[in-house]
Amino acid sequence: MHDVNVIEIARAALRLAPAARGSFLEKMCRSGRVRREVDALLAADADAEAEQYLERPMLGVPEVLAPRSKAPTAHRIGPYVVEEVIGRGGMGVVYAARDPRLGRRVALKVLSPHLSAHSEAKARFLQEARAASALDHPHICTIYAAGETEPVDGEPGGQLFLVMAYYEGETLKEKVRRGPLPVEDALRHTAAIARGLAKAHAAGILHRDIKPANVLVTTEGVAKLLDFGLAKMADAGLTKTGATMGTAAYMSPEQADGRPVDHRTDLWSLGVVLYEMLTGRRPFRGEGAPATLYAILYTSPDPIREHRPDLPEALADLVDRMLQKDRTARPASATDVLTHLDRLNVQDRMPPTAALPRIRRLAEDSDYDAAYRLARHAAASLKGDSELNRLMPVISDTLTVITQPEGARVRLERFVPGRVEAPSEGVIVGETPIRDLRIARGDYRVVIEKAGYTTAERIASSALNRVERSFGVSPDITLDVRLTKTDEGPDDMVAVPGGPYQLVGAGAPTRAQVTLEDYFIDRYAVSNAQFSAFIRAGGYADRTLWPHPMVVDGRELPWEEAMAQFTDRTRLPGPRNWVNQDVPSGKETHPVTDISWYEAAAYAAFVGKRLPTVFEWEKAARDGAYTHFQGAVMPWGWVSAAATSHDRANFSSRGTEPVDRYPFGISPYGAYNMAGNVKEWCANETKRSADGAPVTSGRAYTGGSWNDPMYLFAQYGSFTGSFTSPALGFRCARSAPGRPGDQGTMCLDLDAQTPAYEPVDETTFQRFLGHYQYDRAPILAEVIERAETPDWTREKVQLDVAGEDPILAYLYLPKRAAPPYQGLTFVPGVNVFFEQSVPEQMEWLLSPHIKAGRAVFSVVMKGMIEREWDPRRVFPRPRSIRFRELMVRHATELRRGLDYLETRKEIDMDRLAYVGFSWGAASRLVFAAIESRFRSVVLIGGGIDNQYQPKRPETDNVNFAPRLARPVLMVTGKYDEECSYYREALPLWNLLREPKKLELVEGGHLPAPEARVPVVNQWLNETLGRVEGATRQSPHSVGAITDSDGFTAPRPTPRRPASQSGGAPQRLGGG
Amino acid sequence: MASTGDVTRILHELEAGDRSGFDDLLARVYEELRVLARAQLRAERADHTLAPTELAHEAYLRLVDHRKVNWANRAHFFGAAAQAMRRVLIDHARAKSTQKRKGEHVTLSSLGADEKPHTMPLETVLAIDQALRRLEMTDKRLVRVVEARFFAGLTIRETAEALGISHATVSEDWRLARAWLKRALSPDAAA
Predict the structure, then answer these.
(1) pLDDT digits (tens, 9 = 90+) for A349-372
(2) Could you tell me how far CA A660 lies from the centroid of its own chain?
(3) A140-179 residues touching B, CB cutoff 8 A
(4) A220-272 pLDDT, tens per residue?
(5) Which residues fall within 8 angstroms of residue A896, CB to CB, at 6 or more apart?
């Protein structure tokens, strides 16, 4: 018997060339028996290969499974005498039969037994058959009757059958099998089918199973559509809508997905048939039905002219339109298809331009690289083609690189999503000046090298360049780089030119414009290894490096006393997270963290540099690239999708990464990791001085960290200078030689004054409300996904309202409590549009409330992840009509969600709360104000941000906040840098009417759960009533304001220095 | 018939590493394949054959809620379907064999309409099964590959997916298994 050894030796031998096997086996086979067995196996392999042994699968059930059935010839089905089998399909067998009463020939279709199972299904089948038999049209096969077989000769009977007109001819399936049809024939048959469909659709009957096997072409060449409505009849006997017996290849996406269908499903299938008639190929293929369904749902067919370049473009366009996954993009009706077909016959044929549709398709899929390569290839033969000329600016950009001095070599590396590191050295495209170099649309890292000069890196971002430019104008990306001589600037720093600069980040603490002199900023954040050198050189003992008065806990400390705080875990001078002054293992190249502002400043002085001001930092990081979408302009350009942004910056929540990672995430001046990885200290002193509160001081930071949502990159905040965190580091700056300057070293007033806003009068407000007029509509709801955890059941629900995009919603039902549940309607943070899905955010933020026994519900609104939108994800400007339209649309979607929620018996609609986070609390207050079904409102990280985003009055919180008729709880983090307490939260508070409550808690924009959850729970208990099993915790928030009478401005105390271990960083953000 | 939820749930458990449901899955798929095979044959296809791949996919559509599964789930399903298909085919072949109809041939046909059905003696089919039982004792994976390729008609790619191994390994295993079967079934085989 063979053993494993034999098989494995044979396996190794088979990998060798036959000639090499002998000596190998000599070595490997320890016994003659093994050698003989291996030889025998190899010999058998040679035989098996030669005769293709078993190569054809056992593709058949042995006939022994069932006795060969009686010859159907002597058969009678009902009154009909069966003559012969003329066809078979998934649904059953078709016989030619004779109707002895009328003496005419008929076709009899007997349905498969499993389609004839249930009596209810039978009734439906017969009903559908009657409807279909009413269709009388030259291109529809007439159905005479339908019935059920009688028990005969021991056969059980009860099988359903249809009696149809009998035609001599063959089906399109047979015709297509021989190859593509002449265009004229294909068009004639398509027109015939479309005429038949027009008639049927007018009668309210869908075919649902258009496929070549269902189109019979008579010997006279007349197409007849078979099996009208049969798919639906067959469906009656099946459990699943989509999974009918027929072949999947012709199903429309909505059928494939099990969604409701209308007449346009037939137009899709007709499109598939037309495609196949013209090319001999099916547009959607896959091995097996699931793969085919997948192809239908998610892939684009090859443009038809790749297979038939001779087809007129208008015909290709028609096929293309019929095969649109979005049925609203298909021809509106069968008649519409006919109109197009008629037009085709008179249209001139276009020259063969087969590549163009493919280029267009690639461009639509944003695969600009492939599109551009194809276009360049085709350009030679299509010179001057207007379509190509139109496509070129869509799929490519031009790049100009100018340097001072000239003659630098330029390399380009294309950014490929999914790849964090630079894949290669890139392609050398020449020496500067390079003008109007055409490149595929996309993002590139541009490396500019010249002997004697520091190598410069830049990002050429098509996306950024195209923002707010209209299509059709080829954007020219221009890089103008002044190279720095190696002896003028250190090569670990990048040069930034001076000039006037004004901060543009949404949370910018000042609107002042300063004039910057030329300066350098570190290419990378200061690493642990670098900081270690500073410690070893005695940096902590050199008092001259520590000139700044040290303030700890709001108190200025003597130098020695302060220095006693700046120690590692072993009480030696060093970062709080180090042990024994050693760099944390494996983190030499990671940014140094857990150091106070004073240590950062001392290090900078030690290396002959200084900390950058916020102006220097921001200019180096993004250089004022500003759009109205707050904060989302990253160093490398426009935020499009989270996926690619995560290849370009560390917002991973997993910890720091090496300082030189993410070569495609560099800033406009080539600095690495300015967004993410660690927040960075800046030089500026800060103060909080609003409304007569005591002045407290701190130091500014910015940049966002691995532990933040991406958009916090653009935010500014302040910590007391002794604060440390594992998410806070720094980099240094230095003025250019002979160019000293103030560089904006001002003290930043982070709170400034609290603005007051004036709402509009009641009459005007009532007019605004008109925009939000809401009409209920019937909703077809389907739970399309259900997920279980020990704590909750999560349901994903699709809500269909006629004429509207399907809405998605998530409902979490708690497991630890009994219904009816109180419901929290969650309106999320803005990052659900680009970074985090709604359920991800809900579970992140609200799981404690679900565990406490409350149901949580959220509507995935238009544009959020999982709902399609403009791929560029450009938010409408807050003053635009589109902004209002989007607001109204979102409000409507939310209300449809509530309508659905009312149908859920588990939910107690009298105990429903609105819970808004960030965007939901600051930008969409309108929702809570216009909807009376909410009994309680919770706003976390909410405020009025009109200083930065003046809005249309009919969308402005200023006008809606005073009209909020329910009790409102505001939860605001003391250090909220996105929605500052004095600037934004307090103005909102002042507008709200009673009853209201403000909880000012530890933390930033998104306070930590331990600060946030108890106060929210208590509020919900008070306003909605307690919940069985709810956590009983008293709030331990700091400086809580419980009513307006007792209001005294809470004092934002500076954050205490972190514990020895560095303490837990506050989790900031959440949108 | 098992509800789609049950099978889908088992597939999810398998993906999460819980193998306890595999036998249950096998039993359900086996049952479904038998029912489907019978139903289709009663529909009187003239050649009285069915393509197992078609059957397996049909079973998949009926047993699995395709909107709730991913490719790994699908792979587990077809892995089980391949094993179940071997049982279905062999059970019936054996049942037939016990009726002592010497010389009865098993009709095999392929999906392609232009290919003629070819036959394989019942004894051979059963002998292959016997040989696989022996092979199972030394190399289970080769047996799984034979089930997938020969009995369920899966492609190399599908087999790799179903068994969670690479294409190259499937190709190699398949070649070795065929050689092994060829040798095991040859009249002069040692064992």
Answers:
(1) 333 356 777 777 777 766 788 788
(2) 27
(3) 177
(4) 778 888 877 666 655 544 433 333 444 688 889 888 887 888 899 999 999 99
(5) A777, A779, A799, A801, A807, A859
- Look up residue B114 and give its two tokens: 């232009």
Measured between alpha carbons, how far apart are the two ends of chain A, in Å? Answer: 68
Q: Give phi and psi for A805, each to the nearest 5.
A: -60, 145
Q: Do A72 and B44 make contact, defined as CB atoms within 8 angstroms? A: yes
Inter-chain touch B183–A44, beta carbons under 8 Å:
yes
Q: What whole-number distance in Å separates Cα of residue A653 and Cα of residue A651?
A: 6
Interface test with B, best of A3, A16, A61, A255 (most B CBs within 10 A): A61
A514-529 confidence digits (pLDDT tens): 999 999 999 999 999 9
- CB A43, CB A60: distance < 8 Å: no
Size of interface A-B (CB pairs under 8 A): 193
Query: Which residues lie across from B108 on neighbouring strands?
Result: B118
The one-digit pLDDT tens for each residue of chain B (191 residues) are 445 567 888 888 877 777 777 778 888 888 777 777 666 555 444 444 555 666 776 777 777 776 677 766 777 787 788 888 777 777 766 665 554 444 444 443 322 333 333 346 667 777 888 889 888 888 888 999 998 888 777 778 778 877 878 888 888 899 999 999 988 887 655 44
Q: A195: how many CB neighbours lie within 10 A of its CB?
A: 20
Chain B contact for A60 (CB, 8 A cutoff): yes
CA–CA min distance B22, chain A (Å): 21
Instruction: Kindly list the residues from chain B whose CB atom is less than 8 angstroms away from the CB atom of residue A112.
Output: 39-40, 42-43
Cα-based angle A178, A180, A186 (whole degrees, multiple of 5): 120
Distances (CA, A) of A697 to A208, A555, A647, A715, A754: 72, 10, 37, 18, 18
Token code pair at residue A415? 């950014």
CA-closest candidate to residue B77, choices B22, B37, B32, B134: B22
**CB contact at 8 A, A133 and A146:** yes
Taking contacts as CB-CB distances below 8 angstroms, the residues of chain A near B122 are: 62, 64
Asked whether the ipTM of the predicted complex exceeds the cut of 0.85, the reply is no
Sign of CA dihedral B149, B153, B159, B163: negative
Q: Are the C-beta atoms of residues A442 and A368 closer than 8 Å to each other?
A: yes
Q: Which residue has the tokens 């999982």?
A: A866
Q: Between chains, do B48 and A288 touch, taking CB under 8 Å as contact?
A: no
- Distance from A111 to chain B by nearest Cα, in Å? 8
Question: In this structure, which amino acid lies at residue A1052?
Answer: P
Contacts of A723 (CB under 8 A, 6+ apart): A596, A597, A698, A1054, A1055, A1057, A1058
**What value, to the nearest 5°, has the Cα angle with vertex A932 and ends A929 and A934?**
85
What is the Cα–Cα distance from A1036 to A1009, expressed in whole angstroms? 12
Beta bridge partners of A907: A821
- The count of other CB atoms within 10 Å of the CB of residue A179 is 8
Cβ density class B53-84: b for 16+ within 10 Å, e for less: bbbbbbbbbbbbbbebbeeebbbbbbbbbbbb
Q: Between vectors from CA A697 to CA A695 and to CA A701, what angle results, nearest 5°?
A: 140
| Residues of A that are catalytic | 209
Contact A549, A556 (CB under 8 A): yes
Residue A280 burial (CB count, 10 A) = 15
For A677, residues 6+ apart whose C-beta sits below 8 A from its C-beta are: A525, A591, A649, A650, A656, A657, A659, A661, A705, A706, A729
Whether the Cβ atoms of residue A297 and residue A325 lie closer than 8 Å to each other: yes
Interface test with B, best of A5, A41, A63 (most B CBs within 10 A): A63
CA distance B121 to chain A (A): 10
Q: Is the entire prediction scored with pTM above 0.95?
A: no
What interhelical angle do B71-98 and B122-138 show, nearest 10? 130
